[in-house]
Amino acid sequence: MQERGWTQAHLAQQIGVSSQTVTNWLKGRDFPRPNALLKLAVTLGLGFEKLVDTGDPTEPVIAFRKKAGTKTTDHHISKARGMGHLLKPLVPLLPDTRPLRTLITSPVCEYGQLRKAVEQTRAELGIGQHAVLSYSHLIGQFLRNAAILVPVLWGKKDRHENALHIRLPEEDVTFVYLNLDVRLEDFKFWIAHELAHVYTPELAGTDEGEDFADAFAGALLFPHECAEAAYREAVGKPRSGLITALTRYAHQHQVSLNTVHQQVKRYAKNAGLPLLSVEDRTIHQVRNRGTGATVSEALFDPLPPDAKKYISVASSVFQSEFFIALERLVKERGVGAGYVQQVLDVPLKDSVSIHRALAV
């Protein structure tokens, strides 16, 4: 503002807020909401990193599960961090599960060490290396580790991300948003990917953390022993036969054909064995021939669900305390539909329906 010769009042006028609001931002009493932060960036011609002091150890830590072909921008980051600040009033209303947390202290992608981390995790879950990892195994780990699942209906298109991880370092709580409008065969991998972030909070929001989360998710869902069995069954078969064999494993473990193929490739490379005679491109072509059901289609009939059904599924299926805490905030502190809209990042009409259901 000084370089431009602007006063606080002039800046406030440019972005459509009061002078007191700008004063509160500058003094750290309040944080701009995502739309206001975007207006600030456009008006001042500054990126997010220059608008916000990211060295603040209390600043929300963000990690995206991006859609293929999308690019993360300053707007995405500022919007997610704004959501993080708005989530803080919910934290005192959540259950405290801190003593039971699991941490992976040496998160590396090297095959042998990753295999050990997966063996330890599966042992803690009480399942062997050949067993199918269920959704209940995964979902239970989030609540145990003070990570709150927030199932959302963000649609199949027009979104930058299909999952969003917001960690509040000061409150030591993580919120994990999961878009239910995605294919079932991808969903378990994404949940396992987000669980890896929860196990490695120090890596959240970094490229290293994303690489580890991808590697851990694949190995956790389809471990070394499963990959070895699939390899032995498929190797030497003609292309159609090996794809049929890998597809059977994918259906059995409720993961995508690509997840099985990638894990078998890692097994073969680590063991010094020849790779299966099928290319990644062929696997993707086979996979993309069918559209597959979405998670929301499996959970709700009809679509979209009414607000009460949606809230009920969040609690019963995903064991989420999110809407229980949000209901208390609505009833005890009188927060409105606008707050619901901001923390769920949904259209206003949807937030009005959800707010009405919570306020009853």
Description:
With 360 residues, the chain is an alpha+beta fold. It has helices at residues 8-15, 19-26, 34-44, 48-51, 74-87, 111-125, 135-144, 184-199, 207-221, 224-234, 239-253, 257-271, 280-288, 295-299, 307-316, 322-333, 337-344, 348-359, and strands at 61-66, 147-152, 161-168, 173-179. The protein has a four-stranded mixed beta sheet with strand order 1-3-4-2, with helices on both faces. A hairpin with a 4-residue loop joins strand 3 (161-168) and strand 4 (173-179). Helix 1 (8-15) crosses helix 2 (19-26), helix 5 (74-87) packs across helix 17 (337-344) and helix 10 (224-234) crosses helix 12. The radius of gyration is 22 Å and the shape is globular. It starts with 7 loop residues before the first helix and ends with a helix. The model has no long low-confidence stretch (mean pLDDT 89).
